[in-house]
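yo

u said u wanted the structure for the complex thing, so here. seqs first:
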Amino acid sequence: MKENYMVCNCMQVSYGDIEDALHTHETFPSVLEAFKGVQLATKCSTGCGGCHQKVLDIISELMMAPSADNA
Ligand code: FES
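structre next:
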């Protein structure tokens, strides 16, 4: 089952939303670039900013994980 939970309460962005946003743009050169892209796509971390580290952690985790699409 796909892991899913709310990451950014301000903008109602879930783990799945971040994952989807990340996978629409496969070629981010760095976690920070990916963060900017995901932020643009989902508006996550544009409210209180409290989820910033959480979003970064999830993005790096997803970028490190072997892509299921290529398996
Ligand atoms: S929880 Fe994400 S901006 Fe506030």
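The chain has a mean pLDDT of 88. The CA atoms of residues 36 and 43 lie 10 Å apart.
cya
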